[in-house]
Every structure is written in structure tokens, then in C-alpha cells.
Amino acid sequence: AVLVESLLVLLVVLSVHAVVWDRFSWCAVALAVQAFYVQFKWDRLLQQGGAVFQFRGAANSGLLPASMVIPLLGVVMKERCRAAGIVYFERFGIVVASTGMLLALFLSVLAVGITKPVPTNTCILTGIAGSVIIYTMKHSLTVSEVIEVLEVLLIFVYLSMILLYLLPRCFTPGEALLVLGGVSFVLNQLIKRSLNVIEGRGDPIDFFLLVAVVGVVLLGLFFTVLFTFMDSGTWISSMFFHMMTAVLGLGVIMPWLYRLIQRNPLFWLLQFLFQTQTRLYLLVYWTFLAASACGVVFYQNAKRSSESKKHQASTITRKYFHFIVVATYVPGLIYDRQLLYVAAVLCLAVFIFLEYVRYFRIKPFGQTLRHLLSLFLDERDSGPLILTHIYLLLGMSLPVWLFPRSCAPKGTLPGAGALVPYSGVLAVGVGDTIASVFGSTMGEIKWPGTKKTFEGTMTAIFAQIISVALILIFDSSVNLNSSYAWILASVSLVSLLEAYTTQIDNLLLPLYLQIMLMA
Question: Which regions span the lipid bilayer (predicted)?
Fold first, then answer.
């Protein structure tokens, strides 16, 4: 299974390399080859318990698929912005690619360094790949860009040491690279833009995303440190939690956002949300869907109480939420993507805040949330945090957030790139959902080495092609320019990756589909 997963990732890398064909795509190929070998060292460390931190069990390290996401995103973003003639974001793509490669190399060197005896051949291969990447960076990056890349690496190292210690068994090494690497990059971008706010670069909704992500992470770190010295389950601690959340929100996050967007954040948000009648209709519709999702949770828990305390939600029941999320995102993508962008940021902040309330048992809702959400746990929620619903939201939202709007003057990219914002809907909302439902109910032929079925994968590919046809009908901005073969190949590769990966597919699959469609 690991070999097939690696082969699929290498096919994605080679596909991007064939389209781009520059020094950075060659570096991506070198990185993929060395990550393939180092991945087995990480797997052995996890099996022997020799890794520095406690990682999520029942999964391989996922180093190769995770290592290639950020570099490939940077490479395809650079190429799209170069074609559009937007130099600033072309350089930004180069910085993203270089940062991703350096973070992946750091994780590879860490694995090689703690493996005993030292694997000589893997060390040589890592050294060659590292030399190629550093040589390319030396001749491609300016001094300020090199400093920026090193700043992200420094933040990543410290953030990893803190969060992997505080949150054991929540991530595999690959998932930690993706999540913590992304948070480190966002934090560095926020610091950089806060210091250079006079330049006036960036859209207010971009600043809103940066401040929201950094704000909720800092909030979590603050309360984790605080509640090591006091019991978080008492009423006094709960009152202190709510009071300090308000203080940090109104005293730190709001002024920070005000400095960036040069206007009152609350007034700006209210004006933005109710700017048009379409937005008002969408907000009412999304409120109805949110109430429906809560109704599913309460109904399933009532069913558990009446049947058995050991009752767990089935795979099909969990996929109800995928259907609800698809129904949420598709109208937003068609009618108002900026509103969807901001609404997804708000939803992420609310989800993470509620997870803090559940984790710290904050009164009056902490224990209730623990009881309600325990029904929907699966084997991937083996750590102290429940992250699968947050990963689902991230998987649907990242293609919207990472869409290079400045390099798409008409609001959409040409060819298959027009489907980039729909990557989450196609890969997770449609593909993963249909594969799970049909595979668990009708599947008989299993893929070698996995529990996934041939029927589930084929049905997922067919469903995604039908979804692309429906998008063409209902979204007039999408024009594929006869790039149907590339779309079919992209969907097929990502669906096969879903069958073989043991990583969080809600997070990984949309990013790989976005990379293929942008390429």
C-alpha cells in the first residue's frame, strides 16, 4: 500500500514537472526521490517507538505525500502568475516552493539523524537532494526571500516542539509537516505584512484569514499553558476562560486587524456580510444547513441513548456531513466566492474555539460537547483533540483560500484551472463520500493491501466526472477549453490516492487535486 501511494505521488510530481519543466520542478523531483527513501526510515522509527514524539498510530509516516504538497503548490502558483505577468506573486510562488522544500528536508534530516545505525545510502541521497535544492535557492532567491524562508523554518521548529509535545498522537509526521508548516507560513506572513502595512498590499479578506488563524492558535497555546497550573473544569476557570477570550479578542486580535485593514473590523465585517441581497439569501440558507447538521448530531445521540451506550455512528452517517458541506459550498462558489471565503474563516475560528471548550471541559458546554461528539469518533481521532471535522472544513476551504485571485484577472483561471476552487467539493465532498458509501455497501473487490474497494473508487471517479459536467452547466464562469483528458487523469489519480493513503484524506486529496488542476 505504501509503495502504491508513493507511486501515485511520484506520478503527480512527474505530471507537474512535464508541464512546468524548470529548475524548481527538477528540485521537486529530487525532493520526491529522497522523501521516498526517508519515508521508510520514519516508518521504522514509528514501529519501534524511536520517534522523538508520540505520533498517530494505525498509519504510516506519510512523509512523501506531505512533503510534496507545499513545494508543488508553490511551483504551479509561480507558473500561473508568470503566465499572467504578475511578478510579485510569481516571486511569492517561488518563496512558497522553497519554504516547502526546506521544511521537508528538515524532517528528512531529522529522521536520518535519529535512525540507528545511520543509513549511509539514505544520507547520501538526502545530501544530494539537499545540495541541489540549496544551490537552486541560492541562484533564485533574493537575500530578503532567503531570510523569509529561514524565518518560517525557525517558527516551524519551535511550533513543532511545543505542539507535538502538548498534543500526542494527534498527527503523523506528514500531517504535522502540512498543518504546522502551514501555520508557520501564515504566522510569518502576518508578521511581515504587519511590519510593512504602509505598502497597502493585500485584500482585507486575506488579512482576515491570517489574523483568524494566528489568533486561534495563540489562544490555544495561552490556555494550554494556563490550565497546566489550574483545573480547567471548574466554574471559576470557565469564567476566566471566557473573560480572557474576550480580552484577547477585543484587546489584541481586533486592534491587529484594524492596523492591517485600516478600518473598524466589526463594522467592515457587518458591511461585507450584508452588502448585497444575494449574500443575505446565502447567509439564511447556510444558517438552515448549520441547524440541519446540529439536528443530525442530536438525533444520532438520541438514537444512541435509546439503543446502546456503545453505539457508534456508521460511515454512511458520518458522510451526511459531507453532503451538507457540499450543499453549503456549491452555491457559495457559484454566486459569491468572497462571501464563502470569509464565512469559511469564521466557521474555522468557531470550530477551533468549540474544540477548546470541549478539550478543556469549559462550563457550561464542555462536557456536553464531549458526549455529543464522542459518537462520531473514528480511528484517526486517537489523540486528545477531535480534528476530523476541522480537517473536513479545511479540505473544502483551502482551494478557495489558496486560489491565486490576483493571477486570474477575470476571476477564473483558463482551462482545467477554472475548477481549482471546486477541488474540495470534487475530491472530498463528492469523491470521498461516494467511494465510502458505495464501497462499504456494494464493494466486493478490494484493492491489494487496503480495505478500500475497486467499486468504490470507480464510482467516485464517475461521480466526480458527472459533477464536473454539472458545474459546467450551472457555473457560467467555468470554461475548460477542451482539457477533459487532463481533468479525467487528475480525478483518477486523486481517487486512487484516496484508496491507498492512510493520511487524513480530507486534507490531502483536495490539495493534490488543486495542484493537478492548476498545473
Answer: 7-37, 57-76, 88-112, 118-137, 149-167, 207-227, 239-258, 278-299, 320-335, 341-361, 382-402, 422-442, 454-474, 486-513
